[in-house]
Amino acid sequence: MIDRGAAVRALPAVVEAAVRAGVDWVQVRERALDGAELLAFAEDMAAAARRGAREVRITVNRRADVALAIGADGVHLGFDAMDVAAARRVLGEEALVGVSTHSVDEVRAAAGASYVHLAPVFAPLSKPATREALGLAAVEAAARFSVPVIAQGGVDASNAGAVRAAGAAGVAVTGAILMADDPATATAALRRALEA
Q1: FRET pair for 48, CA 20 to 30 Å: which of 37, 38, 94, 138?
Q2: Per-residue b/e over 93-127, b at no fewer than 16 CB within 10 Å?
Q3: Is 126 designated active site?
Q4: pLDDT digits (tens, 9 = 90+) for 29-41
Q5: What is the DSSP-derived secondary structure letter of residue 20?
Q6: Active-site residue among 100, 114, 126, 164?
Q7: Is 29 a catalytic residue?
Q8: Is 52 helix (H, G, I), strand (E, B) or coil?
Q9: Across the strands, what pairs with 61?
């Protein structure tokens, strides 16, 4: 997940390198920008991801209009965004429409979503914790529902395998890549952990 606040170097180069090293999904998340600035940022991040020379999905946080404008694969909805049905009316029935969740009950209630982010599984790496970590038991419980669960929060190469073993369909990371000394090496390590 791209967040300017977590980056320690130029984001376009990090995004391109991370995609080359194994990232297969880029989520543009930037709450501090709006309007033309957000559109320009999303365009830059999508272009960097697409230069990564592999298939990559791109989603935009909260803004279906921006996702549509940049040709993204979908939108990721938070608690204060439009609902899933409205997002599908804007982007089409085939679009990825994800939902942020913070409990097993919220996963259960995410009807119609393509996937959910369940967070925080562990204490976040890129920001101070604002919620208690849910742990692997919550991932196991959430994975029993029909919607794919993407585990988020404190995931890195050391625990990604355990998260997948608990039933997560994938992981979403910010700090594990954007704050790493070498983002490409960190990405490759994360990819190996997920595929092991």
Answers
A1: 94
A2: eebbbbbbbbebeebbebeebbbbbbbbbbebbbe
A3: no
A4: 998 999 999 999 9
A5: H
A6: 100
A7: yes
A8: coil
A9: 76
Kind and range of the H or E run holding 60? strand 57-61
Q: Amino acid identity of 54?
A: R
Task: Find how far residue 157's CA is from the centre of its chain.
Answer: 16
Report the C-alpha gap between 93 and 135 in whole angstroms.
Answer: 33
DSSP 66-98: HHHHTT-SEEEE-TTS--HHHHHHHH-TTSEEE
The active-site residue, picked from 29, 62, 63, 164, is 29
Model pTM score: 0.92
Tokens representing 157?
Answer: 């190469």
Q: Phi-psi category of 42—alpha, beta or left, where left has phi over 0 and alpha has psi -120 to 50?
A: alpha
- Does residue 120 have a cis peptide bond before it, meaning omega lies within 30 degrees of 0? yes
What architecture is domain 4-195?
Answer: Alpha-Beta Barrel (3.20)
Query: Distance (Å, rounded) from C-alpha 88 to C-alpha 86?
Result: 5
The per-residue DSSP string of 138-185 comes to HHHHHTTSSS-EEEESS--TTTHHHHHHTT-SEEE-SHHHHTSSSHHH
The question of whether 114 is a catalytic residue gets the answer: no
